[in-house]
Design a protein that fits this description.
Elements (H helix, E strand, L loop, with lengths): L3 E7 L5 E7 L3 E10 L2 E11 L3 E12 L2 E12 L19 E9 H5 L3
Antiparallel strand pairs: 1-2, 3-4, 4-5, 5-6, 6-7
């Protein structure tokens, strides 16, 4: 088992930052801001058990089309932290695997879709 792990994540500003977790540690990040049409928020929680990193994420916001939410869970094995893709800036990403994801469009639901 790995005692600590480092991996990149996109910041709310859209740049790659490094996340560092120790075995048994969880980390939560929340960001909220106003937009020209409403507001936007994101919440991300990572947990490292020594063998894999799990991530739960949730985004929510309101714009001219109404409220829209997205959510999901994914993970990668510590042994695959450098087996994802390399982006044009040279950042090595983990090989994330999706567990679940979904979305809600409140305006569409209100119209019966």
């Amino acid at each position: 088992m790995t005692k600590q792990i480092r991996f990149p994540h996109f910041s709310p500003a859209g740049e790659a930052i490094k996340i560092k977790l120790h075995e048994g540690q969880s980390l939560t990040h929340h960001h909220w801001h106003r937009t020209d049409e409403g507001w936007s928020s994101e919440n991300t929680c990572w947990f490292f058990d020594g063998e894999r990193v799990e991530c739960e994420w949730y985004t929510d916001g309101v714009d001219c089309d109404g409220r829209f939410e997205r959510f999901g869970e994914s993970f990668f094995y510590a042994s695959e932290v450098k087996e994802g893709y390399i982006d044009p800036d040279g950042v090595q990403w983990p090989r994330w695997r999706d567990l679940a994801s979904g979305q809600r469009d409140h305006s569409a639901e209100a119209m019966g879709y």
